[in-house]
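G., before I forget:
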Amino acid sequence: MQRQNSFKYESQRLASWYFTVAVILFGAQLLLGLVAAVQFIYPSFLYDVLDFSVARMIHINALVVWMVYAIIGSVYYLLPEETGIETVGIGIAKILFWVLTIAVAIVVLVFLFIQIGPAKTSTIWFINEGREYLEAPRWADIGIVVVVVGFVVNTFLTAIKGRRTGVITVILADLIALAGLYLAGMFYTDNIAMDQYWWWWVIHLWVEATWEVLVGAFAAYALIKIVGAKRQIVEMWLWIEVAMLFGSGILGLGHHYFWIGTPEYWWEIGALFSSLEPVPLIGMFVHVLYDWGKDKGERMGEGEEDVTSNNTPALVWLVINGFGNFLGAGVWGFFHTLPQVNIYTHGTQFTAAHGHLAFFGAYATILIAMFYMAIQGKNGIKKLRATFASKMAIFLLSFGMLGMTVALTIAGYEQVMIERAQLGGTWSAYFVAQNEVWMAQAMDWRFFMGIVMTIGFIYLVKDLWTIGRNPQNVY
Amino acid sequence: MSKRKVSVWTDNRFWQRSAAWVTGVAAVLLIWLTFDTMGQIRMGNQKDIDAHIDKRVPSPTVINYKIGYKMNAKRGLEVPTIGGSDANGNSLFTVKQKFFGRDNYTQKEADALVNLGKLGEQSKNCMDCHTLLGNGGYYAPDLTKAWLDPAWGKNGPMQAITGTHSRAEAMATFLQHPGRYPMHARRMPNLHITAREAKGLVAFLKQMATIDTNGFPRGFGKIKEANYAETK
């Protein structure tokens, strides 16, 4: 079905392709997450067919890849509006989209049906690299790097030719760092300590540094667009955020180096800098609310009648992002970032609780806000109002994730106390803790909350599909 | 632009430069620390063991020795010990232990075994169920000190269940047919691990247990009531 298309730039059309794949992968993430959640309750479910390791691998890789797709889409979406010109090399950009998508599809099929290989270098090259989050085989790594380099070059050339705003400058610098960091995960070593040292360069410096900066940049762009915040003020905030995020996040990397064979000085460095990581997140939350209220107040003072934002669902997701980022990444991260605590919590369900709420609060939320902005742009809508489905998606996804996090936190607490503190962390200690009724209950609740989120996701998809076409929601 | 005096605190240029400086300084510090850490976590070799030098990541030839995990008086935390230990928890580098019937693996043989094990660990995707050095999935036990786990010891159940007489053989037998020896309702799947791969994996696990993890996991296997007590 051909729908009318009000995109002003081809770059934004390309963005909508990236967003579409992102939503599909988001669905895959939820589905495989449910499989893994069921396996915690009924361990024989799909045993030797689609084992937990495979379900979880696709669960976490779909997560990373949908977010990368949504990030690339967001940049292609805002790039022409910020620079004032069409993206340079848009034809190549479209080809790269298909290259990446075909590569991702092949990797997913291999993960699903081949899963593992013999203990040989060829397995690492063609089947599975077996390093959590970086399971993609080496050929795909190289493909990803080629595509991302193309994307960065597109962005760079466009920014040089067009208007260079603060938002674009931040994104450019950040993308170069982000792409370069991926290389740190592309080598083999027989030394597991060395392996994990560089593995964290990719994982941590992506999600606790460069991705957070992108969130700041996207939020700045969205605030300018949605509530009409003043660029100069928003960009000043953005630079302060960059200073604080990188100032704490880069050396905050040390909190992953407490127990992997690395020297003891990482205790102090990791504890200090990672404890500072929540500070910019508080700032970002205050910033969103402050700008929203200030601009509304200013316009009311000027006697303007209609002072609502021009995109309610996007704004609500943006506010949830501000709070979710602080709560999931900041509070839940700080819970277990000190080595004195982490020696017991490291590698327990505590980490899972933090991981779930942080990825959702910090990234899923703002990327969903970007989806809604693209819907608005695609349909040329002046003001987009939230529908019943938008509200259900907001409520069920957020509530489901919060509930899941609480369940996992309780499971983590129980595991820390019984397996680690009381019984000393052996195999039998592990299983004693896993058999505890508190663990079992928490896993039931986690599964239930996963269902809640999945229903929320269905509402989200329905809403993204229909909201722009229904004149009732537009005014 | 008006000539109004603007405070430096509301000047975008100032904050842009601050961001660049802060990022630059943090990055330089990280790179400097990385050089230091790289030196400290480089894998050792047999010469270190012969010279009684503690390495954070010891030589693969540790598979020839008896391994422990003892409270170290000087450091105040548990540290892996190689070849026996003195009263203060320092390695003696003398007591050997047979690994699949041998305690004379050369550097080359041991390196090859650990390398095979590491390749196997990645190829079989162990890390999406287990944690290694505490990182990975939370569906199965942590493998950091798996080699030292009392479950595989003389008084643990696994040697009897697998019909073997050493830790190494019990682990290797289990890895090849995990479905046959269920330890829990959550069974490990059949990963088509060959006898050769299993030997490599066990060597890798034994070497990993000797990595100095700054006392993680704390009190591993020390709570006698909770485990199959090892009689000394």
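Chain A touches chain B through 88 residues (CB under 8 Å). The mean pLDDT of chain A is 94.

More on Monday.
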